[in-house]
From TrEMBL:
GO BP term (any one): SCF-dependent proteasomal ubiquitin-dependent protein catabolic process
InterPro entries per record: F-box-like_dom_sf, F-box_dom, FBXL15_LRR, Leu-rich_rpt_Cys-con_subtyp, LRR_dom_sf
Domain F-box/LRR-repeat protein 15-like leucin rich repeat: 162-297
Descriptive protein name: F-box domain-containing protein
Top-rank lineage group of the source organism: Eukaryota
One Pfam family cited in the UniProt record for this chain: DUF7885
Domain (F-box): residue spans on this chain: 48-83
Species this chain originates from: Escallonia herrerae
């Protein structure tokens, strides 16, 4: 089988022989293996190719993706069952010839919902992604990370062929343009998770304006090291995507307080925010986060106090944000007790900010008091 890297049908037969005996509870053959005529569901199995489709799919769910691919080539019955029943596939194990493997498999596995094509070295080309888009119209989750060879052709194909995408990872796909990403957002409006880390050309304010307008179900956006992103793009996300829970802006050096203020005022479900090396961020942003998410929640203070682990920021990275002062960051930490500076938890990351060493979460303060109790007043 192409791309299966040495896995042969004989190996598959031995693998399935053991699993059939296990799945059939030893069968009627006294544990003698396939050759001993196991009985499964009233059906006598004398060879592993005779496995009922229901059992085959159950077994397939237990093996790795390379074995599944080989199994699909055993016979027409297995091929049909696997091609119709398989909804998740990862080819990240394929170190060579991934492009050919995708071209071969995509027309068969048309019911895929999840496809992982992450690569250590770039193999995928546009024709493979176009084949996926033409054959796998139900696809919801696609990982194309580190596909340096892909061009805008791939995004245009996905826009037309995979309108049900909810998760798309194109991190490191540095050749994509913002024009193609903008086009994609017009068709893939169900996106909830979008990873654009390192997509310097694609992640522009123009593209983010389109995403904010078209994809209002977005919950997670990764924009790390997209240095062309500015306030216009982030504010468009804040206004257009109120369900945002995770936003990584690490290395987006152009953004200012205006972006954070827009997020604080409009994205009430924000849980994780990365601002590493965003050196234009000042205390204004911290105070807006501290107060903005609760200022309009009349009558909700008690529920916030009782369920603080479920409400508000739980992760914040402000490393290298050297303009921030301790009072502003401490106010944020006090507002959201799920932010921790204590050892082992560190959900408030302040490395590189020497002026913030006096900021501590509530449990860190309590731990300090336990080790260094205040002296009792003399009577």
């Amino acid at each position: 089988m192409i791309g299966a890297e040495g896995l042969k049908t004989d190996d598959l037969g031995l693998c399935f022989e053991h699993m059939i005996v296990f799945s059939a509870g030893g069968g009627g053959g006294g544990g003698g293996g396939i050759g001993a005529a196991n009985v499964v569901g009233g059906r006598v199995i004398t060879d592993w190719k005779d496995i009922p489709m229901e059992l085959l799919l159950r077994i397939v769910s237990l093996v790795d993706d390379r074995t599944v691919i080989v199994a699909s080539g055993v016979c027409s019955g297995w091929r049909d069952a696997i091609c119709l029943g398989l909804t998740r596939l990862s080819l990240s194990w394929c170190k060579n010839n991934m492009n050919d493997l995708v071209l071969s498999l995509a027309p068969k596995f048309t019911k895929l919902l999840v496809l992982v094509l992450r690569q250590d070295k770039p193999q995928l080309e546009d024709n493979a992604v176009e084949t996926v888009a033409n054959c796998c119209h139900d696809l919801q989750d696609l990982d194309l990370s580190k596909s340096f060879k892909l061009s805008d052709r791939s995004l245009y194909a996905l826009a037309h062929g995979c309108p049900n995408l909810t998760k798309l990872n194109i991190s490191g796909c540095s050749a994509f343009s913002d024009t193609a990403l903008e086009y994609l957002s017009n068709f893939c409006r169900k996106l909830k998770v979008l990873n654009l880390c390192g997509c310097v050309k694609a992640a522009s304010d123009r593209a983010l304006k389109a995403i904010g307008y078209n994809c209002n179900q977005l919950q997670s956006v990764i924009l790390g090291w997209c240095e062309n992103v500015g306030d216009v793009g982030i504010m468009s996300l804040a206004y257009g995507c109120p369900e945002l829970r995770v936003l990584d802006l690490c290395g987006c050096v152009l953004i200012t307080d205006d972006s954070v203020i827009a997020l604080a005022n409009n994205c009430r479900h924000l849980r994780s925010l990365g601002l590493y090396y965003c050196q234009n961020i000042t205390d204004r942003a911290m105070y807006s986060l501290a107060h903005g998410q609760v200022k309009n929640k009349h009558g909700m203070w008690e529920s916030v106090k009782n369920r603080y682990e479920e409400v508000g920021l739980m992760n914040l990275n402000i490393s290298q944000c050297t303009a921030l002062t301790p009072p502003a960051v401490q106010a944020l930490c006090d507002s959201f007790p799920a932010l921790h500076t204590c050892p082992g938890r560190h959900s408030l990351i302040i490395s590189g900010c020497l002026n913030l060493t006096s900021v501590h979460c509530a449990c860190a303060v309590q731990a300090h008091r336990a080790v260094h109790p205040l002296p009792h007043p003399a009577h």
